[in-house]
Amino acid sequence: MARNILPVLLAASASLVGATPPGIPSTSVAETQLEALTVAAAGSGSDYDRDLFPHWISQGDSCDTRDLVLVRDGTNVETGSGCSIDSGSWYSEYDGATWTQASDLDIDHMVPLANAWRSGASEWTTDEREAFANDLDIPQLIAVTDNVNQQKSDSGPEEWVPPLTSYHCTYGKMWVNVKYTYGLSVTQAEKSALEGLLDTC
């Protein structure tokens, strides 16, 4: 699963202003994907454990998934030995804040692991949950202000959306795409909230 992609990410990071996760669909595609999602009541979270989703796995070159997202989402990011993030700046799309210390950033799972568990991931294998928690190919991972991510916790869009209203459209499209890609269900309240977010596009 490890991939030697750090040089590519380092080259790309110099031109980025904010985080731009891959695979964000157009509004029309997101609307189609949303309509295809199964609407169902949330499952039980009583047996959820974050450790059931192995995350920040090795991605090669001594880097883990968190490191690669920080490099991808930052500007002028420099790494040291062991893929340590030595310097850079990061614009948090959720709240519009800019940071120069990687420790001020969390890597948000767009669809939180606990939410995924309640909407279908409880039936997955550990390997499938690991792939979900470290997916760099869809808009599932994004570097954002740590305390803002902590406010989000495992909430769906019916309970929490980014403080920066200009990001609501993109947030909705990303959430829908992740759920669609992994065949996860949505509650009726969640679907209604996503329709509202897409209406802002």
UniProtKB/TrEMBL annotation:
The keyword Ribosomal protein does not apply. The keyword Glycosyltransferase does not apply. Residues 96-194 form the GmrSD restriction endonucleases C-terminal domain. Keywords: Signal. Pfam families: GmrSD_C. Residues 1-19 form the signal peptide. PANTHER family: AMP-DEPENDENT SYNTHETASE_LIGASE DOMAIN-CONTAINING PROTEIN-RELATED, SECRETED PROTEIN. This is GmrSD restriction endonucleases C-terminal domain-containing protein. It comes from Aspergillus cavernicola. The lineage of its organism: Eukaryota, Fungi, Dikarya, Ascomycota, Pezizomycotina.
